[in-house]
Amino acid sequence: MSKIAHVLMQQETANPVVIGILVVVVIAALVFLLILLKFARLWLQAYFSRADIKLSELIGMWLRKVDARVIVLSKITAIQAGLELTTKDLESHYLAGGRVPNVVRALIAANRANIDLTFKTATAIDLAGRDILDAIQTSVNPKVIDCPDPKKGKETIDAVAQDGIQLKAKARVTVRTNIHRLVGGATEETVIARVGEGIVTSIGSSITYKSVLENPDRISKAVLGKGLDAGTAFEILSIDIADVDVGDNVGAQLQAAQAEADMRRAKAEAEKRRAMAVAREQEMRALVVENESKVPLAIAEAFQKGNLGIMDYYRLKNIGADTQMRESIAKPKKSD
Fold first, then answer.
1. Among the listed residues 74, 66, 72, 79, the one whose alpha carbon sits nearest the alpha carbon of residue 43
2. Of the candidates 92, 118, 140, which is a domain's last residue?
3. What is the pTM of this model?
């Protein structure tokens, strides 16, 4: 084409329109060659792997800003594993923000383990933020969850039996993923919380702590029978009590605290009664002083009415002086 263009340009009768068309054709051919070189390796890889991906589809992925390499390798992996997945499905999941390689590997693992998992379910789980590959692996190979979670800063589940003795327990919960409840199902934290609540309830219903130490498996059987995995993304296979230790005597501590509170209340009531007695004594003393102040008035009135003579008055004064002398003699002397 370059030679033809050169010949035409040398001719004096050359048509400018023809020259323009030839330039456009040359540019288009160069662009096509560059695109072909860009996607040739992926196209050949898909072609020889029977992935059935057209060159036009690769160009479309490039225009839609889709990583063509991810789509091609994922489809090749699926085809080699015997899965029938279309390029459109893989591309649509990629555009939705999904992890296409993760989904494909999860589908392959589910197919090998005879787990019923469709592409629609797998993509829904992936878009929900769950790791679908880890879920399939957990469904095939159950995992163990520590209860309580040591990462939360708590090492044991503390509960008190009916005799007031505290017990510290550790449990290990074996679970596997329930694929059908993975979307919308509760996470591991819910399972740990429910198991912890069940252990506390079981220990609290025990008459004595000794019965728990003798048969710790009663706790696991009682907790396992409550169906704690309902509404979660897991199926609980077993609950094993790993360790049970004796803690504080909470009952004795509560009784001591109650006795201390009762003693303080009794002291407060005694102090209240003492204060009332002191107040009553002060009232009586005031009443005596008040009545004593009325004695001179009564004597004066008796003199006026003639009910009291002068000798009677002196006799009364002598009695008062004698009384004061006796009181002064009865009082102990102050030491110097």
1. 72
2. 140
3. 0.60
